[in-house]
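User: Please run a holo structure prediction.
Assistant: Happy to. Please share the sequence and the ligand.
User: Here you go; the ligand is magnesium ion.
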Amino acid sequence: MKFNELGLAPELLSTIERSGFEEATPIQAQTIPLMLQGKDVIGQAQTGTGKTAAFGLPILQMIDTTDRNVQALVISPTRELAVQTQEELYKLGADKHVKVQAVYGGADIRRQIRGLADHPQIVVGTPGRLLDHLNRHTLKLANLKTLVLDEADEMLDMGFIEDIENIVKSAPETRQTLLFSATMPAPIMRLTDTFMHEPVTVKIKSKELTADTVDQYYVRSKDFEKFDIMTRLFDVQSPELTLIFGRTKRRVDELTRGLKARGYRAEGIHGDLTQQKRMSVLRQFKAGELDFLVATDVAARGLDISGVTHVYNYDIPQDPDSYVHRIGRTGRAGKSGVSVTFVTPNEVGYLRTIEDLTKKRMMPLKPPTAKEAFLGQVSTGLETIKAQIEADDFDKYEPMAEGLLEQFTPLQLVSAYLKAVSPDDAATVPVKITPERPLPHRGGYARNNGGHGNGGYRGGDRRSNDRRGGNREGKRQFDKSRRYSEKRSERSNAKTSFKKHKD
Ligand code: ADP
Ligand code: MG
């Protein structure tokens, strides 16, 4: 569907055109006309389907620029998302000169107060900080026309429902309400019952999302082999903009350190980093100053990162929906993408569960041999050489080159140059990654590799992997509680640090 068939004003069509959007996504095509008719809409769609513009464009269209009150409020689960949404709305509203202010915890509240005093027509914020501003009367919602709850299920998981209820109470009953969520658990359904008026549901099936434009591979390997295999794959696959997912914060930190040690431009994000650090890493990645972004699921959720060529699931996700989220970051906008998922022998059941959901088989990928990796490195070097020759800017160098040709054979010179411009064999820098316990065993796979009671196998000691014994049931419970507490702590961190910064 073309944007100009959706009833949008010319001052929006111009910014849409500048953003490079050619066609409306399915959720946009369905949501925009409904919102323009004044309907409440429940939008159910995964990350990356263009929900921001789906609600943002009609909001921008309906904004009265002569009215100095806050007319639209978007509630976002995280600071990053709030900022991202603010930026997108600002960009799309530029020709209409709409002011959009973001407010979130962990940032100077006085600056936000000044921003709010400058009469933005749209405010985007995280729940706690929004409440804070409401209590200080630095934000008034008496004239609000449109309220958006973005990523509602995420806000539920983060424990924000009560805050949201309190915010909604400050908005007039007559408002239009939009709710976006990838899933619709019962508490969210209740919200829609209490806060929405005869809402229309727009549901985009996940099937349309598991992009056929992503070539999905898996590699079977032991945990301790993954890192070397991955960097060899880099040599062969030459990824450009790359996302790597790790299961835990420690994983993310260690992978990032390991990649840097091997000369890759990599940074990591997870819930323990400061807000500033996460934002600056994301900015660098988006600007192409980094080639590799390592992340946990929680840190990456909902973030809009485009142009990703490769996604490496260093750890297979436990939850098949996470897989869809992860690989949905590549293969966008008609471009093709590649995903590679590492599977330890114990985790094959998870692979099958994912394939059942996506209705697509992943293709097995063999770890590249040293020779294949070498050929990959050299071909990168060759590209550099060819580009240099095409640039043909050698005048300064030719006298010296002639001297060298008298001293050495052409074969020696060319080999030396090729070596110099090819990336090093990554495996020459040893990197040790602390083994993670594999996910608890899941049905459909007969072998039992339990018994890592001693902390799992270490650096190359294959025997301990085969050692039997240990209480499998006990281990399973241990894994479970540990994983949950990890997830919880990442989330509650987001919340506590937010509370802490409440000034
Ligand atoms: P979601 O909220 O569903 O996760 P976003 O609104 O963050 O998705 O959009 C994801 C990316 O797609 C953004 O970079 C956005 O600019 C881009 N985008 C949105 N709509 C379109 C479109 N119609 N065509 C191309 N790109 C789009
Ligand atoms: Mg979004």
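The pocket of adenosine-5'-diphosphate (ligand 1) is lined by residues 21, 23-25, 28, 45, 47-53, 302, 304, 306, 333 (CB under 6 Å).
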